[in-house]
Each structure stands twice: as structure tokens, then as C-alpha cells.
Specification:
It is built from 2 helices and 10 strands. The protein is mainly β. It has a domain of 113 residues. A hairpin with a 4-residue loop joins strand 5 and strand 6. The longest helix is centred in the first third of the chain and has 16 residues. The protein is globular. The N and C termini lie far apart (93 Å).
Length: 178
């Protein structure tokens, strides 16, 4: 009886050392068929309730059309000294020029240059992603105003300026920014 138990134990132990057989080779998956280029995404249609909600607060929805703007402007807040310059050219939601500098007194400054970014989205919001950091610059139009917003841009700023960096607002009709 002891011999049978030893034989079973030896069999189980040897079975534990065994490996599974290698998987059978599979046929390579065919490359996907080329597809026709997709049309640009359409802006979502907002419900009447949503539009009413925005109107009560004096807000306009983000435009669904391709952004077109060209501006070269500067601004200064006389009370705080917060200042900036912006040179921006966007045609059919394609950014052709972006040079921005924001100076924040006692904090530092931030600089953004199109050569350091690549465009990753066009509609409904234009998004540029830094090639060197995690910074993203977003541009969108609401009514006559274009917003240039910055996200996670510590590498583009000196000192602790990024903690005090606000979006740049552009009056598209007058070519002014603030």
C-alpha cells in the first residue's frame, strides 16, 4: 500500500513539472482593407433645454464649424501687471501660426510656439499637443470670442507661473485679446 502511495505521489510530482504543448501556429491575420477618408466630425446637436440653460446664463454654445481666425494682439492688466502677447492664425481648423507669451509678475512667464506642438484634433475644438511635454493647447470659438486655453504646461513655464496661467480670450471681430 505504501508503494502505491509513493508511486501516485511520484506521478503527481512529475506531472507538475510537465509543460503545456506549444500553441498551434495561427494563420496571419489579413491587413484591414483601406477605408475611404472619414468626413470631419459634426458638432453635436444640443437640446432646446440645454440651449435655454446656456442663454439664461448669457453663454453661447461652442461653434460646430471649423475655426478661422487671425490675430496679433497684446494685453496688460494694469492692476496686477499680468501681460501677454499672442500671434495666432487658424484656417479651416488648421493652426498655421501660434506664438504666445504670458508674463506673470513675481511668478515667471510661459511661452508657446507652434514648432513645439503637433495638432491632434480639429473639431469641435482644436487641440495641439506638445512634442516635448504633456502640455496641450486648446482653441475654440463661442460667438465672436476665441479661447486659447492651456493644460498641464509646467514645462513651458518658468517659476510657478503655470499655477497662475489663465486662458487668452480673443475678440474675433475687433482683433483684441485679454
Amino acid at each position: 500500500m505504501l508503494g502505491r502511495v509513493a508511486a501516485c505521489a511520484l506521478t503527481v510530482w512529475l506531472a507538475g513539472c510537465a509543460t503545456a504543448p506549444p500553441p498551434a501556429p495561427t494563420a496571419p491575420t489579413p491587413a484591414p482593407a483601406p477605408t475611404a477618408p472619414q468626413a470631419a466630425p459634426q458638432a453635436p446637436v444640443l437640446k432646446k433645454e440645454t440651449l435655454a440653460y446656456l442663454a439664461k446664463r448669457g453663454l453661447k454654445p461652442i461653434s460646430g464649424r471649423a475655426l478661422n481666425t487671425q490675430v496679433n494682439c497684446g494685453f496688460v492688466d494694469k492692476e496686477t501687471g499680468y501681460a501677454g502677447q499672442l500671434a495666432l492664425a487658424v484656417t479651416d481648423a488648421h493652426v498655421e501660426r501660434l506664438e504666445a507669451r504670458v508674463d506673470i509678475p513675481k511668478r515667471g512667464s510661459c511661452r508657446f510656439n507652434l514648432a513645439d506642438f503637433r495638432q491632434i484634433e480639429r473639431l469641435p475644438i482644436v487641440v495641439l499637443a506638445s512634442q516635448k511635454s504633456s502640455c496641450k493647447v486648446s482653441l475654440w470659438e463661442q460667438g465672436d470670442q476665441v479661447t486659447v486655453a492651456f493644460r498641464d504646461c509646467r514645462a513651458e513655464c518658468g517659476g510657478d507661473a503655470v499655477d497662475y496661467l489663465w486662458p487668452i480670450l480673443v475678440d474675433n471681430r475687433k482683433g483684441r485679446c485679454s
